[in-house]
Write a structure and sequence with these properties.
Layout: H1 4-12, H2 19-38, H3 42-65, H4 80-84
Helix pairs in contact: 1-3
Protein name: DUF29 domain-containing protein
Organism: Salmonella enterica
Pfam families: DUF29
Length: 91
């Protein structure tokens, strides 16, 4: 999953919007695409996996940013389709 915590860095730590983070997001998307090509059956489970991992991403983002968990949206603020699109970056 393109970790939501990576997107949180963009939203909550704008000074980290550098090339390295952008490339990390792109790399993770490519890894997901390759995994889905090798195991097409994962596509059916992808939405559920995204929802399940979102809570973990909030905890990780809170730890890494120093912000409280309550500062993050309780539900994923992007659609899964957007998060996996190569041209999508959170504002």
């Amino acid at each position: 999953m393109v970790p939501a915590r990576t997107f949180f860095w963009f939203d909550y730590k704008p000074n980290f919007r550098g090339k390295s983070w952008t490339l990390t997001i792109k790399e993770q998307r490519r890894k997901i695409a390759r995994r889905l090509e090798k195991s097409p059956s994962l596509k059916r489970e992808l939405s559920e996996m995204a929802v399940e991992s979102y809570g973990d991403a909030i905890l990780s983002a809170a730890r890494e940013t120093g912000l409280d968990e309550e500062n993050f949206p309780p539900e994923m603020p992007w659609t899964l389709a957007d998060a996996l699109r190569e041209d999508f970056m959170p504002e």
